[in-house]
Backbone:
């Protein structure tokens, strides 16, 4: 699976959009981009995933560049409860026959 | 529907002792896995299973055994605990053709 690079930490004001970048310059054509988050040492929580088109669900939006070498997770209106470590993961296929390989992630601090 | 349940939540072991960390899911998921998370780091895959009777090694399998006799349960065994196994352990499950992994709340293990 391709390696990802994320900034170690970011701050965001409450109510503003949080934009979390991820670099995956060695991604292959059949690898999907996944995002998970981990709130205060709880078990990780799935957020969203995509292949090459932008995706949106009730939690977030995922923007993938046309060359697929980077992506951005957008939390449109961050709240204090969104303070967490966010993990960007790339993996082959959209099913779970493969492995989730977690990096260090980005610690997002949402401030009042 | 309890999701993924891990027991115990906390455990202290002496070096050389053995124990089993329990993981159960009630979602009829085929895929189950075990991760460990050391302070300030992302999760690392220990072992995984794609169905009853089938297990395989992840990134850091040494010192751990698993078995999968039923779809619901995936216990992790430490045969002779070492201080290096002090960590937080997470169990996860998902459908093989699903896109989202569900994690338990973790077992915090200290080996003294």
Residues:
């Amino acid at each position: 699976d391709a390696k990802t690079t994320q900034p170690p930490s970011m701050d965001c004001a409450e109510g503003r959009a949080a934009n979390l970048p991820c670099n995956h310059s060695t991604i292959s054509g059949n690898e999907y981009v996944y995002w998970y988050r981990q709130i205060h040492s709880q078990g990780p929580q799935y957020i969203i995933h995509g292949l090459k088109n932008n995706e949106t669900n009730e939690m977030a939006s995922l923007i993938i560049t046309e060359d697929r070498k980077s992506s951005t997770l957008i939390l449109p209106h961050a709240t204090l409860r969104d303070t967490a470590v966010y993990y960007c993961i790339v993996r082959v296929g959209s099913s779970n026959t493969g492995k989730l390989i977690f990096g260090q992630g980005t610690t997002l601090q949402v401030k009042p | 529907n309890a999701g993924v349940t891990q027991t115990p939540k906390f455990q202290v072991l002496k070096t050389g002792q053995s124990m089993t960390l329990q993981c159960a899911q009630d979602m009829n998921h085929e895929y189950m896995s075990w991760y460990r998370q050391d302070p300030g780091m992302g999760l690392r895959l220990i072992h995984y299973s794609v169905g009853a009777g089938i297990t395989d090694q992840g990134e850091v399998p040494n010192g751990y055994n698993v078995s999968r006799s039923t779809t619901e349960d995936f216990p992790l065994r430490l045969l002779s605990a070492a201080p290096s196994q002090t960590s937080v352990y997470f169990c996860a499950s998902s459908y093989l053709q699903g896109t989202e992994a569900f994690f338990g709340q973790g077992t915090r293990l200290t080996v003294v």
In short: The mean pLDDT of chain A is 91.
